[in-house]
Amino acid sequence: MTETTAHLAGGRAEETAPTMRPILHYTAKNTWLNDPNGLVWHQGVYHLFYQNNPFDNVWGNMSWGHATSTDLLHWTEHPVAIACNEEEDVFSGSIVVDHGNTSGFGTAEDPALVAIYTSAFKEGSVHQGTQAQSLAFSTDAGMTWSKYAGNPVLGRGSAHFRDPKVFRYEGPAGSRWIMVAVEAQHQQVVLYRSADLKDWEYLSTFGPANASDGEWECPDLFPLPVDGDPDNVKWVLVVNINPGAVAGGSGGQYFVGDFDGVQFTADPDSLVPTDADGNVDLRHCLWLDWGRDYYAAVSFSNAPENRRIMIGWMNNWDYANSLPTSPWRSSMSLAREIELATVDGFPRLVQRPVLPLDSGEPARTIQNMELHNSLLQLPDATPGSAQLIEAEILPGTARHIAFRLLGAPDGSAATVLSFDALTSRLTLDRRNSGNTAFHDKFSSAESAPVKLDGGALRLKVIIDQCSVEVFAQDGRVVLSDLVFPRSGNLGTDVYVEGGTATVRKLGVTSLS
Q1: pLDDT digits (tens, 9 = 90+) for 109-150
Q2: pLDDT band at residue 359, thresholds of 50, 70 and 90?
Q3: Residue 237 in contact with residue 165, Cβ under 8 Å?
Q4: Catalytic site includes residue 35
Q5: What are the pLDDT digits (tens) for 205-250?
Q6: Mean pLDDT (whole number) for 333-350
Q7: Rounded to an integer, what distance in angstroms lies between the CA atom of residue 283 and that of residue 328?
């Protein structure tokens, strides 16, 4: 992964508010982070590796940071795992557990973890000006790493060949390693196979397709049963793009289709035709998230019980280096469990946030309450905790239903989540959320189409100090945005305009 369009800010920023560091979203202690990479579950532990600048809180000196967790919510930071040096920056990639010891880095009884990463070669290197794929390995469960002496193991003579995601494929011709990587500036996913992770054979290319005005980065490819049916399995290809996402700047799109061990073929309903001028309507593409701050999303290898769990970088290259936090800058999204479900006749991703199993009793619970052109005060957010709002609302005759989040005591500022019944769109508006002046591209309002189920709007909203993640209609639509409220802005309410709506159920819970 490379920082291509970010605005570089000098020096370290001040905290907007003393509670700005999130509770449930991972942040490095005092440095910069971006893309999650090398996500792997091993020996009962989730390992989150990520792009990290060990020396500052702006992009640069790309290395792999490292954190571990047993619940995907509370993380322990470890020393830098794979460091940059005078020859290379260490860009994004993935990790596999080499159970068959195909690489020879471990043993059959004690398999090595093998990282496949992009070497971004610096001036003075024999490979300068190119990006190629390299290996590192760990024989102590991911705590220390050695770079392979034979690096790089795969190059194309390209300056933008990066972000390898490797997985084990079992097919009629046997088992093999499959790599999906990108030619970023050609908007192409390129696929390779290997028997030993060292020697790679080209298979096929996918793209350009759908959103393709920016660089393609951080691909992922995996199978999922549709509606839980093991006899109906489809493949999902995730491709992140920057710039050119639906909300502006960075974002993640996906395709549903088939993979035969050689080539990915997208279903026709996953592809958006171009107009007479060769343009694509981005609103018709398939998006992981309709907000501004969910990028470089990839899934874990070896997650237990065949769960597919994904984490993204909660930021946008439009303003990434300017976020008003210190000494840390940037966070990860909540982990999301993803599935394929039939939506309007087609297989589509649904995403559900991983939350604490024991969330305690809601601070307030409401059932079957009618609101007519009125406002209902809800419990304030609590410093030192995240806030979970779960709601099911029948809009009825109301035109607008809106939640004001992290609001000022005098009502002068808030992040507003609103549903417009006339247009059937859900909007997350941070234009008056607090500190928006640190970058001219930050102030924004994002919206997504939401179809009611039986007349009901269902929402799960997680507010964590400086972020809002919205999961609508059981995770069929997701909106994620950073926000930077002023100190003391903790108010929460819901209001109805233009008629009467029924709050079928609503709960507000503190999470820690």
Answers
A1: 999 999 999 999 999 999 999 999 999 999 999 999 999 999
A2: low
A3: no
A4: yes
A5: 999 999 999 999 999 999 999 999 999 999 999 999 999 999 999 9
A6: 98
A7: 34
Taking the CA atoms of 477, 480, 481 and 487 in sequence, report the sign of the dihedral they define.
Answer: positive
Whether the CB-CB separation of 495 and 26 falls below 8 Å is answered with no
Written as one string, the DSSP assignment of 359-420 is: ----SEEEEEEEEES-EEEEPPP-TTSEEEEEEEEE-TT-SEEEEEEEE-TTSS--EEEEEE
> Which residues, at least 6 apart from 226, have a Cβ–Cβ distance to it below 8 Å?
232, 233, 234, 340, 341, 342, 347
SS3 at position 17: coil
Residue 365 identity = T
Collapsed DSSP state (helix, strand, coil) of residue 143:
coil
Residue 95, Cβ density class (10 Å: 0-12 exposed, 13-18 middle, ≥19 buried): buried
352-379 burial by CB neighbour count: b if 16+ within 10 A, else e? bbbbeeeeeebbeebeeeebeeeebebb
Chain centre to alpha carbon of residue 13:
24
How far apart are alpha carbons 48 and 69 in whole angstroms?
A: 8
Q: Which of 35, 163, 293, 464 is catalytic?
A: 35
* Cβ count within 10 A of residue 229: 10
Quick check: 165 and 298 in contact, CB under 8 A? yes
Q: Which two tokens stand for residue 14?
A: 């001040």
- Residue type (1 letter), 165: K
The closest of 24, 36, 22 to 240, measured between CA atoms, is 36
